[in-house]
């Protein structure tokens, strides 16, 4: 079995070894004695217009009394929840991510910290499926008492078709590279010995713009852009005459 010289970050191996991944893989197979083994990494990306947005909205309240801070927070959060319901956000798309109550300290030189009040917070994770109304939802949240809003991040709700497209593109790229090396060596690609996949989604896009005070009557402008998925394949080929 011949070894192919190292080039362009292509790893070489004398025999196929099992390749583990969280995705699918082909089991290693016996290699012919006259074979040259070539390992190639290829990646591809597929993009589409996002169809969902993820945001977090929270209510933070403070009061000298802990019970009052928590009660005020609950009342304010109830108004936020009602605003989400009025915006046609389904219950399955609203999830509490954290509730906290913590003391607020006053610090003075040469004095121990003194509790001067309490801060209560309640945060929701929200999925908005109608992106055309996302700006209205953000404005409604702020109007009804949400004083902490983060996001949105945009995503594809059903990304599997995009992953399938990226897989095929990455596999074609890997085969094209293998054919190039095989041709340069006067060989042919006999078969795939092993195949492993690693997929990931690039970081979500942040909120593009917020409403200005001078135009409070307008919805918060939103630009969704494109969301992408990426697939990387590690393919081991057997080359020969």
Report on the architecture of this protein.
It holds the Pfam family SIMPL. Keywords: Signal. This is Membrane protein. InterPro entries: 26kDa_periplasmic_antigen, SIMPL/DUF541. With 241 residues, the chain is an alpha+beta fold. It folds into 2 domains: 2-48 and 158-240, Translation Initiation Factor IF3; 52-155, Alpha-Beta Plaits (2-Layer Sandwich), CATH 3.30.70. Helix content is 23%, strand content 37%. The chain is built from 3 helices and 8 strands; from the N terminus they run βββαββαβαββ. It has helices spanning 66-86, 134-143, 160-184; strands at 2-3, 36-48, 52-63, 94-106, 114-128, 148-155, 188-200, 227-240. The strands form 2 sheets. Strands 1-2-8-7 form a 4-stranded mixed beta sheet, with helices on one face. A hairpin with a 7-residue loop joins β4 (94-106) and β5. It is elongated and about 85 Å long. The termini are close together. Mean pLDDT is 84; it is low at 5-23 and 203-216.
List keywords for this structure.
241 residues, four-stranded antiparallel sheet, 37% strand, 8 strands, Translation Initiation Factor IF3, Alpha-Beta Plaits, 2 domains, four-stranded mixed sheet, alpha+beta
């Amino acid at each position: 079995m011949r070894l192919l010289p190292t080039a362009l970050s292509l790893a070489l191996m004398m025999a196929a070894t099992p390749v583990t991944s969280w995705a699918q893989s082909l089991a290693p197979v016996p290699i012919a004695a006259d074979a040259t083994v070539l390992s190639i990494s290829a990646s591809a990306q597929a993009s589409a217009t996002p169809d969902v947005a993820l945001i977090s909205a929270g209510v933070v309240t403070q009061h000298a009394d802990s019970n009052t801070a928590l009660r005020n927070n609950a009342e304010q959060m109830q108004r936020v929840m009602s605003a989400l319901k009025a915006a046609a956000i389904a219950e399955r798309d609203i999830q509490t991510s954290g509730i906290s109550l913590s003391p607020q300290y006053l610090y003075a030189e040469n004095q121990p910290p003194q509790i001067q009040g309490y801060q209560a917070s309640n945060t929701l994770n929200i999925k908005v499926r109608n992106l055309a109304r996302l700006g209205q939802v953000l404005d409604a949240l702020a109007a009804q008492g949400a004083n902490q809003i983060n996001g949105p991040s945009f995503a594809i709700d059903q990304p599997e078709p995009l992953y399938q497209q990226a897989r095929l593109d990455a596999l074609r790229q890997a085969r094209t590279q293998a054919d190039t090396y095989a041709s340069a060596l006067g060989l042919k690609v006999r078969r795939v010995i092993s195949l492993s996949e690693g997929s990931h989604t690039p970081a979500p896009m942040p909120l593009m713009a917020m409403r200005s005070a001078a135009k409070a009557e307008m919805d918060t402008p939103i630009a969704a852009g494109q969301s992408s998925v990426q697939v990387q394949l590690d393919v081991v080929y057997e080359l020969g005459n």
